[in-house]
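Per reviewer request, we include the raw input and output of the structure prediction for the construct analysed in the revised manuscript.
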Amino acid sequence: MAASAPPTIFSPTRRLAARHRMAKLQREADAPRYIVDSIIDDLIERLGFLRFQFQKALVIGDWGYGIGESVERIGEPGCACTTASLDFDAEQPFAKAEYDLILSFCELGTINDLPGALIHMRNALTPGGLMIASFPGAGSLPMLRQAMLAGDGDRPAARIHPQIDVRAGAQLLQRAGIADPVADSHTLEVRFSSLDRLVADLRAQGLSNLLAKPGLPLTKSALDQARAAFAAASESGKTTECFEIVTLTGWKR
């Protein structure tokens, strides 16, 4: 009996549009990139701790950041780093046993078939290869969630992505047959002057709403209520928002 297809929670069309928008916005001099900067700092620390050396790497999620150059600098001399194209689909099979390191930035949290994507990543690794995937997970954007609930009132709509926690991440790695699976997280706090500033930063970092069935746009009055709720949580004129960055790590044996 054929396995049933995973539910369509996220829209591939909206995902691709968000990537193109992000690639354009990241060309601006003052483009926000604190999420990926935090992930890169964590990545460098992890690779240093593991003392893992690599010659051929694949970066998924570099939609305008220029991450590939940073990865090549921390690899072995002559390291080659391939950056996935904007139309890359992690839910489809790709290279077979080609890379000794695969890095995924802010992508796996919006995949419909996450176990399948992890299996494809495992298959693309050479024996002894390492995969590291980081993305905003459970615990992220609590202030945005509260603001949207305030705006929607008695009829809350789907506006925030379902989020993966550390425990579920570890289980997914095991399910995909990845060896020595590890799932952990770190927290990044950022202060915003307004709800609009937060939303603009999310769009510029490819973290806008990718749901296949998003709620209807907020009315003007509902948006004003959401802005007011976000501002009410401020201290010294700014509201602190939280990003919980989940990282999944594993090997191909």
